[in-house]
Amino acid sequence: MPGLYFEEFSVGQTFDHPIRRTITEADNVLLTTMTHNPAALHLDAEYMKNTPFGQPLINSCLTLSFMVGISVNDTTDGTTVANLGFDEVRFPKPLFCGDTIHIQTEVLELRDSKSRPDNGIIVFAHRAYNQHDDLVGECKRTALMLRKPA
User: What total of structural domains would you count in the chain?
Assistant: First the structure.
């Protein structure tokens, strides 16, 4: 199990995740159609030629999924009880097919769970950057985590 237990995290701890991911058209179309999102800005290259972007945008739900998913192996794989919520989700710059992202995670807060003494609560900040190191996504994720077994 590669994930860390609640006690193994510290506020300010930062993870530069080694996995990088080039986002493909197939990734974008699959997520967009699986979630029944008919928006032309993700699926219609001809339509998007006449916009300021000139090409389809990567679905922001895919960006969010990659931000969290890429972080899991280094942080929470096997030690997360549940995700409790996502806050302050932002996409300051667009992503396009062919862009390569890398993710950074920072521990913002640690606190005891009042209702579950075997667990702790962690607030993570996830940040996604493209191949030019432009910030393309960020969010806060609150997770209920396992404590180390006694």
Answer: 1
Find, among 1, 39, 14, 3, the residue nearest to 107 by Cα: 14
Residue 136's CATH number: 3.10.129.10
Residue 128 lies in a domain: yes
- Alpha helices by DSSP H, the chain: 25-34, 40-43, 45-49, 60-75
- Considering the domain boundaries, does residue 1 fall inside one? no
Structure tokens given for 38: 């008919």
- Order of strands, edge to edge, in the sheet holding 135-146? 14-22, 100-112, 119-129, 135-146, 80-90
The predicted structure's pLDDT at residue 2:
81
pLDDT given for residue 1 in this prediction: 60
88: left (phi over 0), alpha (psi -120 to 50) or beta: left
